[in-house]
What we know:
Subcellular location: Cell surface
Organism: Neobacillus driksii
Strand content: 25-35%
Keywords: Competence, Membrane, Transmembrane, Transmembrane helix
Largest sheet: 6 strands, antiparallel
Pfam family, one: N_methyl
Protein name: Type II secretion system protein
Shape: rod-shaped
Oligomer: single chain
Amino acid sequence: MKNIKSEKGFTLIEILLSITLLSIVLIGFLSVFPQMGKLNTFNETKAEAINVAKEVLIDWQEATEVKAFIIKNDHVTGFTPTLGSKVTYTNFSSVKFTDYYYFETTKDQYDVRIKIKKVPHKTSSTAQVNQIIVQLLNERGNVVSETYGYVKRIGVTASAAG
């Protein structure tokens, strides 16, 4: 009779233990893939929102009606966008923020908040500009992107501003 103890190999317990450990490692590794997918979706949405915010900022910076609005004295009603203008808004307030004119609009799937500083800022080039802040909000009302820039006041030259 052959002695079983002298045979070399793995016991059933060792095999089951190694399968269990391997399963735990694989399950942990596979759980990373859905997280990567969520992160990619979030980053894609964020990049899109950044581009939309920059587009809105540029439209408002270049709009003649916005430039004319910030130099006029009567800021009760906002301004009337010209026909075919890229600049539109649904709500305006000159009292919601003490330092800013406040506009609300929509762009693509985002709600957009636009604030234009009431008092012009003197830059080193002595041209007068007003700060503009653009915020994009998602359907839950969370800010997904924010950018800012400056709107040059219409009719103000460097020599007149100094």
